[in-house]
Amino acid sequence: xxxxxxxxxxxxxxxxxxxSMLAVQAQQAKPAAKPAAAAPAGKLNETVKIAWIDALTGLxxxxxxxxxxxxxxLAEQFSKNNPAGVKFxxxxxxxxxxxxxxxxxxxxxxxxxxxYVAQGTGTGPATAIIDFxxxxxxRNPGKxxxxxxxxxxxxxxxxxxxxxWHFRLxxxxxxxxxxxxxxxxxxxxxxxxYLLNQNYAHGHQVARYAKxxxxxxxxxxxxxxxxxxxxxxxxxxxxxxxxxxASGADTVVTGNWSSDLTLLVKAANDAGLNAKFxxxxxxxxxxxxxxxxxxxxxxxxxxxxxSAMTGEARRIMDEYxxxxxxxxxxxxxxxxxxxxxxxxxxxxxxxxxKVAFALEGLQAKSLNGDVxxxxxxxxxxxxxxxxxxxxxxxxxxDYSVENTGFNFQPVKTFEPYVSSTPTSCQxxxxxxx
Length: 433
Prior knowledge:
- By secondary structure, the protein is of the alpha/beta class.
- It has two domains: 47-171 and 312-381, Response regulator (Rossmann fold, 3-Layer(aba) Sandwich), CATH 3.40.50.2300; 174-303 and 384-416, Rossmann fold, CATH 3.40.50.
- It is built from 13 helices and 15 strands.
- The protein has helices spanning 2-29, 61-80, 99-111, 123-139, 173-184, 201-217, 238-247, 259-271, 287-291, 312-324, 331-347, 352-359, 416-419, and strands at residues 47-54, 87-94, 116-119, 146-149, 166-168, 192-198, 222-229, 251-254, 276-279, 299-303, 363-366, 369-373, 380-381, 384-391, 406-414.
- Strands 7-6-8-9-10-14-15 form a seven-stranded mixed beta sheet, sandwiched between helices. A five-stranded parallel beta sheet has the order 2-1-3-4-5, with helices on both faces.
- Helix 7 (238-247) crosses helix 8 (259-271).
């Protein structure tokens, strides 16, 4: 019996050993599993959603629709190739140009997990975003949201109201007026100036800085009239044009944009007003068509782009027009993606707190040359151009704005240091940890 038990035990052990050997052999016979695909070294391989919050309805809808398309178009472009290796996705919200609607949209975006927000149309909405994020980010560490301001240009936003979470990509009102009046001081035909602006923060600032700068640079120039009108509500500017003609003004300085500039220019042409216009936003949707041939040589614009730009800028302009039969004129959108992807690569993260610190002092090359996000107040320093409305010609002046056969041709370039203005910002920064 004892021998039988030993024999049975030996047989079982042999069977187990044989089974184990066969299992090992079978495993070795299988092809090796391929490792999971990894992102290239240094690439984050993430999708970054940006909440675009601006007006898509009302009198400024054309501007909003153009800029939304610009954000979406460049999201596609930069998702193909950027140093951080991230993909960008735009989620749009219509704020109806209302600060209250803006806050509601921002809360909705945050509820969806979106941690970057872009806005530019109107100081009121921009101020509402800054105020909201200052409180929200302090109460919600680890869930912070960064604000990319691409066109709200009230200087107070990077002075008395400056915020660590706010980064302005456009030149502010004071910077643009510094460049504009530096050009105007050398124009001997400017003798009598009329100031016509929208009745909100930006319009007030345009009038203020125009008067201050002209009195300093051209004390001989007379301010012969000044008007402020409701924002995006006036449908007939004929009464304002009548006042300008009666004043004897040879020059109009205006920060008007969208319908408020389009209808103003139309009324001026209809009334035969021959004054020159010095503007911030004459390239914005609808205004170029209203200007037409009647405004050639008489409408000037200060901005970060012009129609005769070459290289990457012209490629973007041409592809955008081919895709949408519309014009790409908001260079600040390109700034947004250039700086954001560079900051994410530098931070090796898409976390807004780390990216915000990486954005401070960041230098990059954009459509208008080298730009720098000034650390002191988060105001981008960049080249500005003065351009005049003229008939399109040979390359590089062959671009046709709104298919009119006309475009904005550069007459003066100002390096960043020329238009840079000081700041009173006392930045409150969170802990970097």
